[in-house]
Every structure is written in C-alpha cells, then in structure tokens.
Amino acid sequence: MSGTLTDGRSGQPLPGATLLLDGTPAGVTDANGSFSLPAVAAGAHELRLSFVGYQPITRRLLGQPTAQQLTFALQPADVLTGEAVVTATRANERTATAYTNLSKEELAKRNFGQDIPYLLDQTPSVVVNSDAGAGVGYTGIRIRGVDVTGINVTINGVPLNDAESHGAFFVNTPDLAASVQDIQVQRGVGTSANGGAAFGASLNIRTLAVNRDPYAETQNTYGSFNTWRNSVSFGTGLVGGKFTFDGRLSRISSDGYIERASSDLKSYYFAGGFQHKNTMLKFVTFAGKEITYQAWNGVPGPALTGDRKALQPYLDKYAVDVADTTRLFTAGRRYNQYTYDNQVDNYQQNHYQLHFSQGLGRSWNLGGALHLTRGFGYYEQFRANDRLSNYELPPVVLTGPGGTVTVSRTDLVRRKWLDNYFYGLTYALNYQAPENDRLTATLGGGWNRYDGDHFGEVIWARFASTSNIRQRYYFNDAQKTDFNVFAKATYQLLPRLGLYGDLQLRTIDYLIDGVDDDRRDVTTRASYTFFNPKAGATFTLAPGQTLYASYAVGQREPVRSDFTDRPVGDRPKSERLNDLEAGYRVNQPIGSLFGQSLGLRAEVNYFLMNYRNQLVLTGQLNDVGSALRTNVPESYRTGVELSAAASLAEWVTLSTNVTLSRNKLRSYREKLYQYDEYYEELGTSEVAYSNADISYSPEVVTGSQLEVQPLKGLRAALLYKTVSRQYLDNTASADRQLPAYQVADLRLRYSIRPKWLREIELGLLVNNLFNEEYSANGYTYGGQFPDGRLSFNFYFPQATRNYLASVGLKF
C-alpha cells in the first residue's frame, strides 16, 4: 500500500503524519505527504493516520497481492488528541526495543471483567496469577520473570506504581480496561518514563481518546463462583465542536475459587475535555473501592495432594486444631486458612488528572499534566492468643474466688492502615522536523511527591487491658520525592539507517520516621541520583524487513520493605541493569494457501539483561504477605522472544509467541535457619550457590491464539498458554518449585446489529478448558531441623474449568 495525505481544506501535503497499522507504528509521511507500506499481510487491517492539529482518521483495508494506491485527507482540527505526554514515553519502530501494542478493540474482546494482567496474558514473556484463583481480586503479573515491582506502570503518563512498594495494584482500579484506549507493553528497560524504573518491562496505559460521536453501552457478565460484572458507560461526542464528556460506572463481585476469597469491587471513570484549534484541556478522574477477603497465605503443599504424612510438620508448626485439620483436607486446593468473617482488605484509591496540550505550529507541541492520587484504607485481622505486650498493653490481672490470674495473651482484632497522597506533574515538549521525517525529539520528565501514614489499631480484644477505643500501637510516616528529566531523539541518518538516543536523570529522596508493627524503629534516610542513558539503531534490510539493536541502563532504589524488614545495619543497595536488545521484524506476504493469500508479521528479539546488586526474591514473605528480597552482586537474564501472526483471508488468524530464557545468579548465599525439634530457632547458617536459577523465572513461556470467523458476526478463539517449571527460591531445588503447567481457554463472541440498536454482543469465555489443576504462584520458607532440611511450601492454586458469559448492548 502506498499513497498520499493532504490537508482536507487546502489540499496541501501533510509531511510527518503518523501511520498506525493494526495499532502498530508503520511510519510517517515524507515531505510530499507520501507514504509507503511495501509489505502488508493478506487479510483485513486497520490503518490510522494522525497529525497534530488535525482530526485523525481510521480506515479498514484489505491486504492484496497487487499494489494499492490510496489517497486520504485530514480535516484541520477542532480536536486535539491530547497524546503529547503519553507519546513522549512510548516506543515506536525507531526506538529499537521490544514492545507490543494492544488496541481498544483487542482489549474489549478479551475483557469479561478479569483484571488487566489477565488481558495481557497472551503477550510475550508474560505470566499471570490470582490470589483468589479466577482473575478477580488481587492479581499478579511477571514479565521476563520480573514481578510488578519491577514493571513501570503509567496511566496517561502518570505513575501508577506505589511510591514505596513499587507495586501496581490493579485491584484498586477495577474494570479500568473498559475505559482504556490502548496499552503498550515494553519489555526490558524500554524508553524513559515517569515513576519507578523498568527492570523487566513497562505498561503504558492510555485512557479513552476523543470520540466525536455520542454513544452509550452496558456490559454485563455472570459466571462461575458467583462472579458478576455490571458496567454502564456513555459519551456525549463532540458538543458545540469543543467539548466532550465520557463516563463509566462498574461493579465487579466474585466469591472466588479459593474459600471465602471474595471480592467486592466498585469503580468509576469520568473525563471532560475542551478542544479548540491547537489547544486541549482535559480532566480525567477514576477511582476504585475494593473489599477483598484475604487469601494471601496460600495453601500448604501437601493439601494439594492429600498427603497426610507430609502435612504433619505443617500441623505441628502451626498448632492447627482438629477442626481446622479436617477443613484443610476437605477443602483441599481451595483451602483458606482464615475464617474470621471480616478478615478483609478494605481500600479506596481516587485518581485525578488534569491534562493540557498545545500545538505550537507544525513542528512543536507541548503537553503537561497535574495529578493527585488519594489512597486510604486498612486490612483487618483476627489474632488468636496474641501477646498484649506487642501492643504496648500491660497484662490483665483477674481476681476471683480461685485466686489471682495474670493474663498476658488475648484474642484480638486489629487493623493496619495506610493513608496517603501522591501528587505532582509531568510534561513533554515534542518536536518533529516539518520538512521531512528525519528528526523527532522530546524533552520530558516529571516531579512527584508521596506522603503516607502507616499505623495500626486494636479495635477489639477479649481482654482489653488499659486500651482505648481504636488503640494505636504503631505509627510511622513516609515522604518520598521523585524527580526526573529526559531528552530523547530519533534521526534518520541514511534512507535505511536510523539512530535513537535517550538520556534520563532521576533523583529520589526518601524519608521514614517512626516505628513499625513489630515496634522496631524504622527511621530511614535515603537519597539517590541515577543517570540512565539509552541508545539504539534500526536498519531496513528490505521492504518489510528491519533489524534493530539498543543498549539501555536502568537504575532504581530499594522498596520500603527492603529497609523495614531487614536487620538493623543491613542496608539494601540500589540496583543497576544494563540491557541489550536486538531483533529482526518482518511484515510481508508469504504465498498462498487454498487460493487465499497468506501474510506474516513476525519478530525475533534477543535480550541480555545484566544486573548489578539485583534485589531478588528469597521466596519468603513478611507478616502482610509482601515478598522479602536480598541483594546479589551479579545476575543476568538472557533469552530469545519469538512472536508471529499469520492471516488466511479475512476469517482465520493464528498468532503465537515463545520465550526461551536463562535466568541466573552468578553467586548466591542462602541464609538457612536452624531449629530444634520443637520449632524453636537456634541460629542461622549460610549455604553458597553459584549459577543458581532466579526464583519465579521460567525458562520457557508460550502463548498461542487461533481465531476464526466461521459466520458473519461470530468470532471464536482458542487460547493456549504454557509455563515451564519455576523455583520458589534461588536454590533450584526440586523440593521447592512450581511445576510446569499448560492451560487453554475458549472465547466466543457473537454480535448482531438490529435496526433499533447499534450492536448486541453475546460472549462466552471458558477458562481452563481442559480442567488443569495447577498453581501459578507460591512461596516457601523452612530451615535445618535435627532430622534434616524441612521446607514449608505454600501455593496459590488457580481455578479449574470455569465460565464467564456476557451480554453487551451498544446504543
């Protein structure tokens, strides 16, 4: 396909306009407004053309064996898309790194109410898990073996990761995918972004773009484990040529696959925008309220197999009573240790963003955003026979006919609170050379501040001692300031050779004052300055074939628990990642089958991620379920990612991706606890390992999807995922592992368009089609006992075969 793009009023050519083919950057128009897509796969495609100050257009096209000459015209804009900040942190075909784009349409067909990680499950190197077992509630994602604390997540360029834990908790933004325009997944260090450093990947999320036409729709889902999703959304379209309003209300609830692992999630999204000529002002707010029953302790390993003999050490260590032992074997892999009726996590997070975008002639545009995130909530726990001294309460002395009794322990209920504010600004100044497409450049960055209070309260006790209502037994506050500035550019040095450069400076100041829940003083002062350069090159071998390579440096500070959960004097070090990415992309016809033209899009990417002082998971958890980590001097992740998509006419597409990797610690010293036969700790020893496998890092991950359209309006897709063995710690022991698993899903979507409604869509998702019993996450701890080493492994089983059915109405 080739063609020209002009101004719809003057007829003048539009140089430097952006082309997206199926959501993937496909080039820009040259000085004459011309473009060329020399290799377009057979089948249906979506071509989008956009240019600052003009209304973008989207056209459905069909790849054909013969050349096509196309002509398009953009209308001068009354509307700006407001993408200045988002675009500044995104990768494209010139930034020489590995990335995947998921459009609004792709997300919509995957979305039955499960959390965002589950919508990304088929992208390369991704492994997902769910505490409750069915993708609703607390979910996790790992990319290249790196969990979400090493994945930079932004929404409209605004950081989502928690400033202290670095985690991104999608349970706090339920059904956000229903209000998302697109998501870009960058693997490796990627391009410079706001917020925490990317140590495995980045998720760049963009909420709904301007929609010129009014709409209204409702999505309703019901399925296994009493799972419900009800969502209503609307948009006014362009009002008076200058204003737009979009909104959504959602409710998602589920009993969960695991016992009592229920979720009650509510959320809203609202955006109001003003556009006039080259100016855009847009207010975006979204919020989530979640109440989830805790399931973060997992299931003891022997309960999955019903091995009573192997379970005995668990029963001895935890002094489990007869009733709970019976319940454990009855529930099996759906067992939940907690039975207190309000053992819940109760948290609300409100997001407010004000975006501004201004076109500055044909070459420049400026974008900025002010943001505020307000979070507050607690998790509640029943504690049996806990020490009063842990809560700074004196023993209770009881006097009766039988004499005096001193009570030093009691049953109680406590809440641990988090009350925080995160606010700041982001900005980006973008330049694109008007006379040709050779040079693009961005100056961007952001300043962000976090203020958070952590405190605990006793809200009930069987023996209350001298406590007050809501007895506060610990308090600490934290402040963190994060500033970064980056400059990056792409330059087409030769017709076939393009260069890319990116320089970022980031500073962090982190303060903690007070005592933690174990009454330890956790006062911390830490400051960091990081310089993160990146460079790359692309080379066009032939039409539709590109080679690329890049080298990037990423550095990041430790997370809160690295400071607060370590022994006094054991200060964590910052981490450094040197990331090499090199690959080959192809997009072209490959012949014919049964008289139909075949098209292929494929990519092979090699990565080498060398770490210095990487903080790796030990496999242990602290008392709130957060992973404990330790620095290792040298480690690496290296491998190959292969992805391909082939189309047969308009009714069959096949896509697949495979990641083969090695993930090693060059040296690792395990701290091994020594216990007597009564489970009393006697001390510690160390065991040295070399070339040990990094925990939670499978060597093989695959994702495949076959989608067919046998009838008009009917789409059927078979999805297949495989994940090889993972280790729960860094010792590569078969006694502490997550076995390999493979799981298939079946998805059906059928849409009709009656005269009285824009669309009715019926959907069915069958998860775990072949009823596989597997666990996607877990943890371990243990030590040396008189009879040998003993490991206590806990797992998070995922649901067996289950269903979600949906009805969507679009007006």
UniProtKB/TrEMBL annotation:
It comes from the Bacteria. It is a multi-pass membrane protein. Keywords: Cell outer membrane, Ion transport, Iron, Iron transport, Membrane, Receptor, Signal, TonB box, Transmembrane, Transmembrane beta strand, Transport. Residues 93-201 form the TonB-dependent receptor plug domain. SUPFAM superfamilies: Carboxypeptidase regulatory domain-like (SSF49464), Porins (SSF56935). It is found in: Cell outer membrane. Residues 306-769 form the TonB-dependent receptor-like beta-barrel domain. Its main location: membrane. InterPro entries: Beta-barrel_TonB, Beta-barrel_TonB_sf, CarboxyPept-like_regulatory, Plug_dom, Plug_dom_sf, TonB-dep_rcpt-like. Pfam families: CarbopepD_reg_2 (PF13715), Plug (PF07715), TonB_dep_Rec_b-barrel (PF00593). Belongs to the TonB-dependent receptor family. PANTHER family: FERRICHROME IRON RECEPTOR-RELATED, FERRICHROME OUTER MEMBRANE TRANSPORTER_PHAGE RECEPTOR. This is TonB-dependent receptor. It comes from Hymenobacter koreensis.
